[in-house]
Design goal:
This protein has 330 residues and is α/β, with parallel strands linked by helices. It contains ten helices and twelve strands. The strands form three sheets. The protein has a seven-stranded parallel beta sheet with strand order 3-2-1-4-5-7-10, with helices on both faces. A three-stranded mixed beta sheet has the order 8-9-11. The mean pLDDT is 93.
């Protein structure tokens, strides 16, 4: 019986990780910020599910995970903020991302010597070099690192703040591994925009940042098709699968994985929605930012080879998400 600690269990990606872990027979200890979030997750699973909870109100607090890690065998760390409602970049994004990561690694080293594998949710944000723009001659892979500086990280650009938080958090994890020489290996999972069905507690007002891009297409609030500033995507179910598969294969030890299905345009998404949900005709925009310019490519070969990921198609992902979203449309 393997006991897995899953942090940030009420989140979009973590909700799917939790489902897979339980289906595979893991005993799961899930961290959430409040009892109410734990109560909601309990409603999704049978009373006899091998699921317990630890309340961690602030992942950036000192020793936040010291108790939660005790007695577990593996750790999946997904807890990190993804939003652009920023008043203080350090307090709102950088500290939770960086300190949350180092806190759980330190806790595992100090209080869970039996842990041999930790999987961490990172992001394409830790790979992409925004200064290069479309960079049509480049193919992004696990070899890339975002070259953002701390000075840029604390500036007044919310996108840069977010990307920096993911970059510095992941770098902190690799630095910890090198300096502290713990008993465990780490694996980082680096997805771009993540779409797909939601199993976490969500409303039209609280839909996660990436799915919100499609929600605004579906609900009639977009007058025209927007440009895709980051034209790379993946389905949440593949991201969750990658986290769990990384726990289970030695190939993933001390590796990064760019979990990406491919590229997209919002025109493609609009067309998929209208083809499969004709009742949304008149709400979903069909004209707008339709560009033919070439942008960077993406390489997912490592994730296919090492983790066995078979990527869900853009059409299937959009359909499965829109089946939920259409119930919210007034």
């Amino acid at each position: 019986m393997t006991i897995a600690l899953l942090t940030g269990a009420s989140g979009f990606i973590a909700g799917h990780v939790l489902k897979i872990l339980l289906e595979k027979g893991y005993t799961v200890r899930a961290t959430v910020r409040s009892t109410s979030k734990a109560d909601y997750l309990k409603t999704l699973y049978p009373a006899d599910a091998k699921l317990s909870f630890a309340i961690v109100e602030d992942i950036a607090a000192p020793n936040a995970f010291d108790e939660a890690v005790k007695g577990v065998d593996v750790i999946v760390h997904t807890a990190s903020p993804f939003h652009f409602k920023i008043t203080d970049p350090v307090k709102d994004l950088l500290d939770p991302a960086i300190k949350g990561t180092t806190s759980i690694l330190q806790a595992a080293k100090n209080f869970a010597p039996q842990v041999k594998r930790i999987v961490i949710t990172s992001s394409f944000a830790a790979l992409i070099d925004a200064s290069k723009g479309d960079w049509p001659e480049h193919t992004y892979s696990e070899a890339d690192w975002n070259p953002v500086t701390w000075e840029e990280a604390i500036g007044n650009n919310p996108s840069t703040n977010y990307r920096a938080s993911k970059t510095f958090a992941e770098k902190a994890a690799w630095d910890f591994l090198e300096k502290e020489k713990p008993n465990f290996t780490i694996t980082t999972i680096n997805p771009p925009l993540v779409w797909g069905p939601m199993v976490h507690d969500v409303t039209p007002e609280t839909v996660n940042t990436s799915n919100a891009n499609i929600w605004t297409l579906v609900n009639g609030s977009q007058a025209s098709v927007p440009p895709a500033h980051v034209p790379a995507w993946v389905d949440v179910r593949n991201v969750a699968e990658a986290h769990v598969n990384a726990l289970e294969t030695s190939k993933a030890e001390n590796q990064r994985y760019f979990i990406v299905a491919g590229k997209f345009t919002y025109k493609e998404i609009s067309d998929i929605v209208l083809k499969n949900f004709p009742e949304l005709n008149g709400k979903v925009p069909t004209e707008g930012a339709i560009s033919t310019k070439k942008v960077y490519d993406v390489d997912n070969s490592k994730s296919k080879a090492d983790l066995g990921i078979q990527y869900i198609s853009l059409e299937q992902s959009v359909i499965d998400l829109t089946k939920q979203l259409v119930n919210w449309v007034k």
